[in-house]
Amino acid sequence: MKILIIEDDERLSELIAEDLGDQNYTVETAQDGLSGWELASSFHYDLILLDIMLPKLDGISLCQRLRSQENTTPVLMLTARDTTTDKVVGLDAGADDYLVKPFELQELAARTRALLRRHQTNYSSTLKWGDLELDPNRCEVTYKDTLLSLTPKEYRLLEMFLRNGTRVFSRTQILDHLWAFESCPEEDTVRAHIKGLRQKLKSAGAPPDLIETVYGLGYRLKEI
Q: What single DSSP character describes residue 167?
């Protein structure tokens, strides 16, 4: 799951990004409204955390612009304003939820999960592919009841495949899904993570070609 944080308080943005990253989300950040708009209109995100008071383009205007372009990505507004009028303005602009600063990271995480469940009904369901199972609620992966010890990137990579059946993903698409825009590595990194994930699956008893290479195109789960 990929989340965009648009927040000009760099310290707060880093705290939120670190906390969400620990929960196996892929996180990207922007420090002003225009940068946030460029990212939100160019890439797919599962959730946007949006501050209202932003330089260059305020959060209300940014949210209105997104909705006018038929962008339905859920938006959680973050703001120091806590009056009823301010909340109504934010929600009327197209936001899905509203969180007043200062807030606890636990509450932010809970609201994040709630919004993701609301907009993606299978988010909390166990994902299965033959004897392979991924539990998003517990962030656990098992093969025939053998628990796999995956890195956060390996976990997100496997989740991406499981949520998309036999869809083929190119290396570029995998980079876009799993790495933050500002720290995107080389395509060889994808090969290394695919190799590591295959080895761990094989060690648990899975077929060595469970994640198969479609030459010239990318990777996908092998049909059962």
A: -
